[in-house]
Amino acid sequence: MDEKEEEEVGEDDMVSFHHLYCALKKNTLLIYLELLYFYRSHQFQKTFKFPYLKNPHFDSHFDLKDPAHLAGKSLLWLARDSHSLSESLRDSVKLLGALLYNRLDIAETLACSSIHGSVAEIVRAQLTPPEGVDPDGQHLRIMDKLANCQTAEKPISDVILSHLNKIRESEELSLASKQIEEFAYWNKRRHELIKAQADRVLLKIRAEEITKELAELEHQSEKLFFFENRLKWEKKAAENEEINVEMSNK
């Protein structure tokens, strides 16, 4: 009895060891396959290069990032299109914009004795070199042109603001009148386009009606002149019959 139990226990142990061996072998195979896949995927890895737009040229517009440059160019453009300002004020705003934009070549052409005093002070403060540093020639030329500028009691911003308040009412009326004219033109143009579109639709409908009427007239004409055209129809029928016979013989 004991030997039988020992034999049964021994057989169960052998089965357990067999299952354990198979499991270990299976796990080893999976690990091997994973390592092989990892190796092959990295060995045959492809690199794709996508073309991109290179921009070696500084366009002085979309490439501007410095806030001072952005403000300076904005002042240059605003002064260029602000026709209600006097020439001296426009040149003063342009000079300030050129200074912020770091376009001293433009600033040198704009600098003169009629520049507003507050702008001249700002330019001098920016272009005056610190102690112990030799001044730049272009800086000296600009400051020399501004030497005879009169001292201003108010900053240029207050002068421009007072000018805008003075012309605000007249400019609003002018803008309103322009908008009324443009809206009237737009409304007139809209009606013209709608009428043209409606005319095209009516012409299309009329063309379809004419085509239908012509087809009806053709059908009535065939009815009215049937006996007069009998020989023609008989000849045509005979020709069709001959064609059918030839086709059947082939």
UniProtKB/TrEMBL annotation:
Entries under InterPro entries matching the protein: mS27/PTCD2, Ribosomal_mS27
Localization of this protein: Mitochondrion
GO cellular-component term (any): mitochondrion
Primary residence: mitochondrion
Pfam families: MRP-S27
Species of the source: Heterorhabditis bacteriophora (Entomopathogenic nematode worm)
Signal peptide: none
The name this protein goes by in its record: OBERON-like protein
